[in-house]
Amino acid sequence: xxxxxxxxxxxxxxxxxxxxxxxxxxxxxxxxxxxxxxxxxxxxxxxxxxxxxxxxxxxxxxxxxxxxxxxxxxxxxxxxxxxxxxxxxxxxxxxxxxxxxxxxxxxxxxxxxxxxxxxxxxxxxxxxxxxxxxxxxxxxxxxxxxxxxxxxxxxxxxxxxxxxxxxxxxxxxxxxxxxxxxxxxxxxxxxxxxxxxxxxxxxxxxxxxxxxxxxxxxxxxxxxxxxxxxxxxxxxxxxxxxxxxxxxxxxxxxxxx
Length: 257
What we know:
Blueprint lengths: L5 E5 L2 E5 L3 H11 L3 E6 L1 H9 L1 H9 L2 E4 L2 H9 L9 H12 L14 H4 L2 E6 L4 H12 L4 E6 L5 H14 L3 E5 L4 H9 L7 E4 L3 H5 L8 H5 L3 H8 L4 H4 L1 H11 L4
Helix pairs in contact: 1-5, 2-3, 2-14, 4-14
């Protein structure tokens, strides 16, 4: 039975809280229920205030998780205890589970065991990054059924071909690393191609899985200052980080709901 979601509002955007997001998505995968997962943080929240299209996509998503420390802080200010759920960790948990999720013939899969596992597609990142990430995951979990990869630097014609490929393959788990808000808007526009799939915007996760970049040390993750390590690795992001104090200020003085 799919666990019910508790929904709360963060500056007009939904955030869903539950004990185990991975199990919830796994059950939906087994039932053939399509899902768009948004990994909400303070930066995305502030972008949505200026981008109505992004705000609409977030509100329509089946699952919005508290990815950033700012979201957890906002909820805490409003009397709601929540744990941060980084999108990269949720995606990793789903990848581990994907090799154990099977579908029967009613889901149009062949009787071949390899084809009956949850099929996966990686889209995004610089040329070669998604492919490298896929190869690393394949070695880590040999039974993983990764059916394709595509980097994010493609022409309009190549994007059309990608959409045709997705429609033909019908992967069940599609990870999209195009950055915010591009990945969220792209998923919303194209998810009809694979209506039974779980789609997740994973940002720079492919870079980390491929070994191009590193996550913050565990102690920084526990202190909810992973964003600071990311700024250290990508100093060009400092202008985008200016929204964080704005978010904190609005969080302190905003009204519940």
